[in-house]
Design brief:
207 residues, elongated
Length: 207
Amino acid sequence: MALTKRQKQVLDFIGNFVDDNGYCPSYEEIARGLELASLATVHKHISVLEAKSYLKRGFNQSRSLELTPKYVQEQRRVRPAMAEIPMLGRIAAGMPVEAVEQREMLNFADFAGDGNTFALEVRGNSMIDDHICDGDVILLERVTQARDGDIVVALVAGTDTTLKRFYRESADTVRLQPANAALKPILVPARDVQIQGRLLAVLRKYK
């Protein structure tokens, strides 16, 4: 059953409250937060949301509400489509240039909305010349095949995983090429290499 606008507002208020505080709001806090006329109105909405399997509640307890897996799953489907930030133009990293403001939205739904996308935190500097540094978070597409030159996560001999550029040296040999002049390429039998993902993006957080 679909939610009415008001039911969705109540549910979203509870979800946001839990995200901010780590526990569910009381009925009084829901009434104040949504400017509802009475606690009876809150009880009515809670009862409907419970019947629609979005909430669970205990009896005679002020903070007994609990969001169900149904709510969590639907939020995961909705939020990626909203995962966008304004991109206001271009910035020079060389000589200064005239600033020209643009109005675009940078949308991350292509990454976050795909069930085949996963993230890993990088350890080490073997790919530093490709600007992938220790501590970076990388987004990858889950694949089992790669083209020459792709940056991939490879499982070697069923035990060790590594992030490298993939090259097929011959029908029987694969070269896993680091992007660090101090390191040598890894040559392994093709049968011992299992591709687990292909690089999509690199995220770096500056504190």
